Each structure stands twice: as structure tokens, then as C-alpha cells.
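Form 7-S
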Amino acid sequence: MTKTRDVVEVCPDGNKDLMGVEEVAGYLGVGRVTVYRWCREGRLPCLKVGKSWRVRRGALAAFLKRGERPSTLVGQLGGFLEVPDNVLGVARNRALLHSLDAAFFRVGEARGGLMLKFSGGETESSESELREVLEENGLEVRRLEGEGRFRFVSERDPLGGRPEALRRLMREEMDSGRTLWASFDWTEAIDLETALGQQEALANLVDASQLVVKTAVLEEVSEEWPVEEQRRAWTARAGTVWLSERGLALSRFVPLSPG
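Output:
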């Protein structure tokens, strides 16, 4: 209690939403140096009040939530995905690719979003087949379609038309207040320069909107890319999701400020 009062006294606006480093350290049972390191690394968002660092209680709650380790794919993605966000998924096989799709959309459903399944990159699957496989993976597609919360988007030009198609849908939903959760998949070989150009255009949309984009490829597709170009693909997105039979790997790309 004493630490809480000290924080209120040193904050000029008396904002009880702000916690001091000592209070955060005491609450979590770690040293002050650890809290400072988390702040420097950007893992725990902080702000400067005078000469002291402060942490918003909401930021601390989000930090703790990210640190939880749910055992399900949906739970893991729920703690990883942000709004806005732009992530690359790599799946070992088609079954895992569809499992990742369903889990991505279930997170979007839980957050009240509009889910958009772009199907042009899976030419071997029809819309009805994709609907069935998503249902088998726990996503109630038919119910969500009936509620106007899920939509299949047919694509005439999946190589070049995706950014414009998504931009059009964003304009349609501008006044709804809903976040758009868009999923793009590639199950066949794709020219990397084309893919990177498309992702850069999608990233520009994400930066300025309430939009979560997941682009997933089969592992066999990504393995065809040269190592240097793979690095470009990974760093062009905010996060990467790897899914295999053995488990899940999640990572974030954090650009460093000069100096």
C-alpha cells in the first residue's frame, strides 16, 4: 500500500493508472533491474514522468497475459496476435495450414471482428470444401456467415489484386468499428518477389487501420526461397508463426531505433 501511495504522490496528475518501477517489481516478485531491462527491450511498454519511469496498469496486464502459456493453438494465438498486426504463418502440411486458419479466425471471432477468408491461393480447394475443413477444425463458419461475421472472398487475381480487394472491403466496413481479420494462404509455389511486393502493400494497409492480416504458406513452398530472401520475408512482417506436428513457434520482429 505504501508503494501505491508513493506513486500517486510523484505523478503530477495523480493518475492511479500509473505504477512505479518498484511497485511493478514488488508485484511481480522480480528485481528493479529486470523491470528496467523489459522496458529497454520494449517487452513492457513504459513512459517517462519527470525523471522516473512509469508503467500503465493496462500495459502490465497485457504483458502478463502474453506471458501465459495456454496449451491450445487458439489460446497461444490469442496471446500473440495484436491489433493491428501482420504475421506470416508457415505450416508443415495442408492439414496444419487449415488448423492455423481456423485458430486465427477463432481469435478474431472472440474479439468481435469481421473474418475474411481469401481463397485464391488454394486453387485445389473449393469454397464449400474450405468451409467444411474449417468447420472440422472448430470454426462455426455457417453460423458466422449467417451473422454477417464471416465472408469468403473469391479472387480473380490473387497475385496482384489482394491489396486492392482488401482496401475495398476496408472502405465498406469503415463505419462499422469492426476489426478485419484477413487470411491469405499459398499452397503452391509463388515467385518470391511477387509475394514480397504484395506483403509490403498489405503492410502499408495494416499500419493505418484496424486490420489483422495472416499470410500462410506451406513449409515446402518457403523452402524453395533463397536464404537471403527468406530473411526479407520474415522481417517484412511484425510476427512469424511456425506450426508443425511437434508444436508451435511464435516470434516477433522488433525494429531497433538508431543509437
